[in-house]
Protein 1
Amino acid sequence: MAQMSLTDGKLDAQQQSQYWEDGYLFPMTAVSPDQTTKWRADLERIETDWLDNGLSKPLMTYKRVNAHLVMPLAHEIGTHPGILDIVEGVLGPDILLYSVEFLTKEPKTDAIVTMHQDLAYWGYGESDGILTAWLALSPATKESGCMDFVKGSHKNPIVPHQDTFADNNLLSRGQEIAVDVAEEDKVCAALAPGQISLHHGLMIHGSGPNSTDDRRIGAVIRYLSPHVVKPGGHKDFGFPARGNCDTGNYELTQAPSGLFTKGDLEVYENVRREQAKVMMAGAKAQTEMYS
């Protein structure tokens, strides 16, 4: 798909309409090549320096769950104005940063993301006020395992999922929709470094393995409207990224004070425990990410 042009870095009315019709939107350049290259280098430096550096959990856990709470790099990405300008076209002027994770497929490996809906386990029901922005920090192609979307599938309710806990599945529960998706129904969401896609929380999506010689690195950023109320009275958290987020619906977090600092790690553990009560509810096993 050709690069989607933006007006002053923002979505126009036709693009907004296309998002609601298809359930996704891509590709849009949100970040400069120089910035993207720097962010990738920063991430890979952290991976080298902190792989075995006394953290209480594996580094992968912090990269995959709420990285924005303990990694200034993740917070910088999640609050980048170029990304927020695009997200505003869907969620409006009030934007809560819900989470950031780094999702990497190493070269020539069989890691996959099975077809699923994000909202299946988040405890928000079938809300329109939540979306995912996926930023490519390296080329995301069919060969490297870019995302596949099922056009219009966000118009369906949450469909039954099954937990596989498969070793090569990058999802927390190995969750997968309990129906087969034909290859011809998948839309390949290829992205160049610095480009993003947006997708609705009910969008059925997944991705295949990386058969290339380079890492496929994505920053997966979840945003929601602070006006969305989480059902069931469950506590939840978010960073006020733009506009008025002081609605009383969320406990507002702060930017990390440094890389894996003691105070930030304590906040991280509290948030992870609270969210796991919903996200891992009913699971027959636990993963290291949420244990």
Note: The CA atoms of residues 84 and 203 lie 20 Å apart.
Protein 2
Amino acid sequence: MINKCLNIEDLHQLAKKRLPKAIYDYMAGGADDEKALANNSSAFDRYQLVPKILRNVSHIDLKTKVFGCEIDMPVYISPIGQSRFFHPECDFAGVRAAEKSNILFTLSTFSGKSLEDVSQETESPKAFQVYVMTNEAENRRLLDRCKAANYKALMLTVDTIVGGNRERDLRNGLTIPPKLSLSSILDFATKPKWVWNYINDKGRDLINLENAPNPKDATNFLKYMGNLLESNLTWQHAKEMIEYWDGPFAIKGVVSAEDAKQAVKIGATTIILSNHGGRQLDSSPAPIEMVREIRAAVGDDVEIIVDGGIRRGSDIIKAIALGANSCSIGKAYVYGLAAGGQLGIERALTILKSELERDMALIGCTNLSQLDLSVIRDRQSANSFN
């Protein structure tokens, strides 16, 4: 069935068939009215690609760098928390698929497999996503473990000082780990394979956090989670982490030029334009809408990543033409993971690469350096950018 999926939406629909409703809603949902979630993808429709004809496009080169690592196309895998929800191989499947496509894989602090085990699974480059925790010593020990495990870059997520209002999860009564109620029993009973896989999975929630209590101890677990992340997050926290890491460092969750400039000022090498997949502030702009403004604010030497709404190869082309260096995929990745584990992720990456190569040829471009404002048109102004 995986090979019959012709696009990312096909993988999405296959994943939907294989997951209990509560887990699917956790994967696919956003905050409040889910306007930001929808806009992340639909905002790409504002931009059209302008074909350039009669060029020699016999060889398309998609190679680029992200966080200083050479990759075969301008896409990498975003960090996904609670990956055990979607497939028992979870992060192992992701990092293996990334290696086969020669792209970068990013592991979440809230992964289902330990950062050491994921590091040892492949030799391909990896980044690690982190939060600022209230326990400073635990913060530093986590970064030390990343250095020892040879993670190439660190990315700090900064847009979760409070949780987004994810009403699908509230209606479904979804908890971590999932608890059984009458309604959830009926829901999970429709997907016995998922239940079997989840129960027999050898991974563990919060496996990277050394002081985390057993999730089965509900009282202590909820208390620990309530005090885990720093709610009074400041630029000083980020600056100290950048200095301690002393390597490629991204701040993830930037959607304003002012914040982008401040991130560069304190030493961030990469700006990740992200609204957390529309799962936090529902009225936030789509990352693609902010590329030109933020590029103008930070200059040409800062790496900019678009994170959010990527569903087609053409989306990646538009992001780079507007001024981004690369893109990251979250939902496109997790749709593949839930649809078929490693094979599903490989299918998602193959689809995006094929679309990239085809669309590059159709607009007469043979390498990423040729993607600029001349290849796109803003349909709102009914004009090209030139």
Note: DSSP finds 15 helices and 13 strands in the chain.
Protein 3
Amino acid sequence: MNRKLIGLAVAAAFIAIPIGVKLLGSAPKREAELVQVQKKEIRPAILASGNFVYRQEVQLSSEVIGKVAEVLVKEGDTIEKGQVLLRLDPSSYRAEVAQQEANRRSAQVSIERAQLNLENQQRNADRSRRLVQDKFIDASKYDEAVHQLDLARIDLRASREALLQAEALLSQARERLAKTEVRAPISGTAIAVQIKIGETAVASATGIAGSSLMTIANMDSLMAEVNVDESDIARVAAGQRARVFPAAFADKPIGGLVQSVSLTPKTGAQGRSYTVKLRLDHSAEGVRSGMTCRVEIVTGSGGARPVLPIQAIMTADAPPKEGEKAGNYVFAVVGGVVRKKVVEVGLADDANQEILKGLALGDTVAAGPIRTLHELHDGDAIKALASAPALSVASGAPH
């Protein structure tokens, strides 16, 4: 009986040991998203923030001081260039014009008087010259007559200069009177009216009360004005494409084009930055001047390059060995197992990164989930995640 039991045990051992070895030697396969190295266009971008402004916006201020007599437009009105927007009380300026007109008439009378005096002195000089020739008077009398003639000529010239001065002052007075009517310098829309009837308009640019009358803007000229950090500005140039995300409509980006890059920096609490102006492809409903926005400026067109999704590329935790570059690596899939491969990367956008060295087109790598990538080891068996589309590359940044 014991011999039979021992025989059965030995037979069972011969069967169980190979099965156990086989079972112990095959670890379960991990599941991961698998992608291939494919050619795709990389569109690296620079991020910046700013706000919307009108390219054509004019803040009107008065050029003369006066009490507002009429305001002829209200906020939201459509305005044509040259249209009268408001009038100041013209009484004092009309009185000034009348005074300068009187001064001009007085100067004209002075010219007439000086002309008559000149003619009279000319006759006296001629008469004295004949008397000297006939020896009825001595030469000193003739010299005195010539002297008076010269003075008469100078008086006439001075009177004419006084007339020119009077006409200039009259012109200035009329110009000040004309400026009591404030006219629109551009066509557009009144987006703000800051002054009311009875208030005093002040000729000043210091922002004191009364210095700002109203603001006119061309509503079709909305543009984005953003600040780009000095470390990125060298990669920004006129003509580059961009996407503009209004803060109020973050899910509705607007296409744009870099129109200009400032040559001088602005210094703020966060360092130096440069102003970049972008022309929008179209006006967006609900977007107004002064609203904040975020902008992605595409800094390269590049053409197609070998790429992988950004999440597939890992960064080595340990410092590189002597002679090696700081490491980026991937888990390449070879024969159903993963192999850790060091790669050299290039340009990147918000979805993909260029692979310069370490992989070839068509090579398969594990791309996620990120937790699985952190748990993988060289030689681990792997298979495609059932719920993930296998062998694909994440789409690049929208054009």
Note: Helices lie at 2-25, 91-133, 139-178, 370-375.
Protein 4
Amino acid sequence: MLRSDRDEEIRIEETKPKTEESTNLTPEEVEAIKKAVEESDARYRQTYRRNNRYKTGSNKVGKLPKALALVYLIALAAFAGNVTTLDVLPVKHLSLVIAGVTAVSALVLTGMCKGNMKKWVRIIAGFLCVVLVVAYSLGSFYIFKTQNFLESTTEESEKKVESLAYEPFNVMITGIDVSGTIDEQGRSDVNMLVTVNPNTSQVLMTSIPRDYLIYMPDKDYEMDKLTHTGFYGVNTTMQAEEELLSTSINYYVKVNFTTVVKFIDAIGGVDVYSEYTFSPRYTPYTFYEGMNHLNGDQALAFARDRKSFTEGDNQRIKNQQAVVEAVIKKATSSTAMLLKYNDIVSSLKDYFKMSISQAEIKALIKMQISDNPKWEIYKYSLTGVGDMLPTYTSPSENLYVMTQNKKSVSKARELISGMISGGKLKKGENGEPALEASDSTGE
């Protein structure tokens, strides 16, 4: 009991009438004494309540904490619904997220809404509530943007595999030599077939020179050079490559100059290895032998140049592969995709198209998060000999084409077919990829 409280009790006791003197008091004096006692008692109770509230906190919960709690629950419900809809978290990760959010929510809501909590506890709980509401809102916004991006850039493939996360598949990358939106048609200057085996965590990039002689099944097998198929659409390019490599292409990814520049800038640039020191014509850039950190414009110049090399298009293909490899490594082995996510999604919309569906993309992301595989990347390039021939696109004049090297085409078919059948790659004696010998015992 506080000292002031005790003094008040003593004073009250002193004001009480003595028994033997009580018969000598007038009624007015008795009433005055009763009134004084009641007033003293009221002051004592008021002092006690004030001191008790200072020590333990008020039992009342204000309107603001209640409103914050309601806003928190709404933001949490929206975030949980969006996460469920996006469906990219594996079960074990989702369980951890749910458990963590539940625990934090219980602490925050209890701290704000329980009446006997101390003032400093409520302040901290309220601060956490505001922070989490902002986090849930941003999360919901990013998920919404992801859904919108996937809807605008993906479509169903007629040749899709049963499960991208567990079954080998082929993806054709076609790079059109124009800037602007992805609907702009042009020559297909970058032509690469990417074979992926999720079971072995291996990727094979098979590059085809832009001037490679091909036959177009949808044009009665007329002869042309591969780059011209871009004028007729992605399906013409895909069928020509299927015929060349004797394989089925399950998906395609279509990009152009603008895609490359915007994407690489969005992820903060890439580190690319150059075999030579060279300066592409009509650019202010010089690339040095060894590792080079490139922004979007630099990476495009690095991948396009062929005039600086005696091997011409063959070296350009190697440089294109180096850029693609650098992008894959940056995207799968760093936090770039997470930290730059908003910039990436915003930069690629209208400049990127793929025939991989939303569900398949989500399955791939879920597999990457769950297993976190370390991908092995192998590269192979088709070779040929230059010649001057008329083509389907220009039948009245001779144009430069690269005739097929049957040995390199046969090797590419073998590697791709082996990976699709479940085979595993290794580095051969000459540095090129080779198939590992199969176990004849079946063990």
Note: The chain has a mean pLDDT of 83.
